[in-house]
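Team,

Forwarding the record for the chain on the shared tracking sheet. I've put the sequence and predicted structure together so nobody has to dig through attachments.
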Amino acid sequence: MKIKLNHLVVMFFLHLLFTPLSLAKPVTYVIDPSHTFPAFEADHMGGLSLWRGKINSTSGEVILDKKNNTGSVNVVMAMDSIDFGHDGMNKHAKGDDMFDVEKFPEARYEGALIDFQDGAPTKVKGKLTLHGITKEVDLDIKTFKCKIHPFKFKQVCGADIYGNIMRDDFGISYGKLLVFKMDVALRIGVEAIKK
């Protein structure tokens, strides 16, 4: 009897773990700041080289409704955590002729998860607020996956997201007169854990 009871308990928990998400209501996932880093690539000197950087501090949430193929994302980025891997560049980027982090300490991206394929979104239709200016910015989702985290024993979703912006659209035109290119490539790795 004890063996059968243990077997039933194990089967019950396995059933909970592997029940398709499509049977669930909308689920909220909290951004994992230790595994979420919005990254970017920007021109230096009109094609002379390419600078790469990232934002080291993020917060926010993702809401996913796989049954109805809908969802949303809300990510807040602490701009004083901008990191080019170079102290001098970090200091310059935070100054008032670039990101002006004293005046604009946060950037925010809010959007809707769309174009679901096989239960996973392939695009985000949203708005980016950067340097005090809000513009529509749509992003593509290269990969999107949800699974049980092997250490936290909670459901986690992760994605590889990319897109492009023109930084002068957001009032960041440093170097434009020196023929710096204004387009910036966004490459965002994100993980979020079920609330």
